């Protein structure tokens, strides 16, 4: 459904903000509908199809039937006990983005973590085992959807050398994690760059975040910190500043085959 609506909108050459303006909706409503985070009512579906010039009765009938059958909770509803309201808002936008740009100054970005690495990070005795299991399963589902299922959003990761060398879970866990990074770097819609120590205090060093950018604007910045997570919306200046720093650091980092070679050098230093 969401892909069909996105394609019809693109065919009609109408941006997401234009849809919102012409239907008197908020821009985020259009993004959430195309991202699959909220269902679309039959009334709203008809308004969208009218706007996009979709007149084929069979297509309209099939989409209306699909809409009636799809009024179910979002995919992450099974993980509500570990999904904060801020993170739920982020998840609703993640799959609808055109591009995702992520950096963490100390750890492997969550979308690239192995189960062993994630469990080692969570092994602090501060949460029940069931909660840890739910977090691990949630992360695995996000990875399945973004790394394996879709060619969009395009995923861009900056991985700091500190993350490659920090022993999270011990050498076996780290060898598995580094091999995962190499595999991810070969996925067509993934761009992985390594930020070596030699870059020193590079521009994005203190700005571990995820930026989601959309063809129609209304970009989003997701920031995780000690006190929780914050989804920054309606502040394009903040997103642009982060992306500018991200691009500057990426331009100085190592990418492609060079990044894989860099990871291999680090791998060789982990004892068997």
Automatic annotation (TrEMBL):
It holds the Pfam family DUF5753. This is HTH cro/C1-type domain-containing protein. The lineage of its organism: Bacteria, Bacillati, Actinomycetota, Actinomycetes, Kitasatosporales. It comes from the Bacteria. InterPro entries: Cro/C1-type_HTH (IPR001387), DUF5753 (IPR043917), Lambda_DNA-bd_dom_sf (IPR010982). GO terms for molecular function: DNA binding. Residues 5-58 form the HTH cro/C1-type domain.
């Amino acid at each position: 459904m969401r892909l069909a609506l996105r394609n019809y909108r693109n065919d009609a050459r109408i941006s997401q903000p234009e849809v919102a303006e012409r239907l008197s909706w908020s821009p985020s409503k259009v993004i959430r509908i195309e991202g699959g985070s909220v269902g679309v009512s039959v009334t709203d579906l008809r308004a969208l199809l009218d706007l996009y010039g979709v007149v084929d009765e069979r297509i309209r009938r099939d989409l209306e039937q699909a809409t009636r059958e799809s009024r179910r909770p979002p995919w992450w509803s099974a993980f509500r006990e570990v999904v904060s309201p801020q993170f739920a808002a982020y998840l609703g936008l993640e799959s609808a983005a055109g591009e995702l740009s992520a950096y963490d100054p100390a750890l492997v970005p969550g979308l690239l973590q192995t189960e062993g690495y994630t469990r080692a990070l969570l092994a602090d005795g501060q949460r029940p085992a069931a909660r840890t299991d739910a977090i691990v399963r949630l992360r695995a589902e996000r990875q399945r959807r973004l790394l394996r299922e879709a060619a969009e959003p395009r995923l861009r990761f900056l991985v700091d050398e500190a993350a490659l060398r920090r022993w999270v879970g011990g050498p076996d866990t780290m060898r598995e994690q580094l091999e995962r990074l190499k595999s991810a770097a070969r996925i067509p819609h993934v761009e992985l760059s390594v930020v070596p120590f030699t870059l020193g205090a590079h521009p994005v060093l203190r700005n571990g975040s995820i930026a989601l950018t959309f063809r129609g604007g209304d970009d989003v910045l997701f920031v995780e910190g000690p006190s929780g997570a914050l989804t920054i919306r309606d502040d394009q200046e903040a997103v642009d500043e982060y992306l500018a720093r991200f691009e500057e650091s990426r331009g100085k980092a190592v990418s492609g085959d060079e990044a894989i070679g860099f990871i291999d050098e680090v791998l060789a230093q982990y004892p068997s």
